[in-house]
Fold these 2 entries.
Entry 1:
Amino acid sequence: MGIATALAADGQVARSLALADDTSVDRAEAYRSVCEALAEVGRLAEARVLSDRIRDEDERSQALAAIAGGLAKDGRTQELIELVAEIPQRYRYRAEDALLQLVETLARADKAGDAVEVAHAVGASHFMVKALAKIYVAHKG
């Protein structure tokens, strides 16, 4: 799906979506690729709207994980937590890197309470251990 992705990254979202709507391609995969490209260039709102058009749970969770990465980079804690809650539990691991990045950023900014809140939002014990380790290292470092 390189062409649709390249078009989206170049700001040609309408052309990208037209290509994605072509019946000869897997629409869910195409939309996911476009979402990832939009998220990569910081166009999170557009990626978010497009992600709602993806019906395949697997492809949608990948798109949401890409958007989560952008939200983490921007430090948008509450939006990130709400977005992760939309990802089915079995796919939440895809957003782990973005969440850990946010936890570390918050902890380094002396916002340990917010970092713990993010860790709790995931709800998985293995993630909590990783997040608490990031918080500990940030405060010791």
Entry 2:
Amino acid sequence: MTGIRWVEMRRQKSDEHIGRLLLRLAPVAFLAFAVPATAQPADSIVATSQLLMGCRLLVENSPDGDMMQMGACAGAVRAALDIGHSIGRVCPPERVGVLDAARIVISFVDERPERKSERFGPLTMTAIGYRWPC
């Protein structure tokens, strides 16, 4: 098996894994956008700090990572991509996936640590909108 074929198979498995996580955790992503910030205790799965931790684990493809956190991040980021695109606020390139967008969100927050207290949904929309404006 060539190296390129192996990489393609690995990416396909990773994409399938993310797809399964998204299906299971779509309600959590909805909560990330719908629940007001005052109703999000710091240890809540939809709190920005927890979702960012999940994004870091997702991007690192951590085999020992908390699957709920990783799935919550993936769902929230996918929702932001879809919602942002549908309202004309985010226009990512055609082949951009959840991992690409999660990396953007992590970088955005790392460069602006004062924004960690904001709600994850709008923060994600802002981050990917800066990277891929329409």
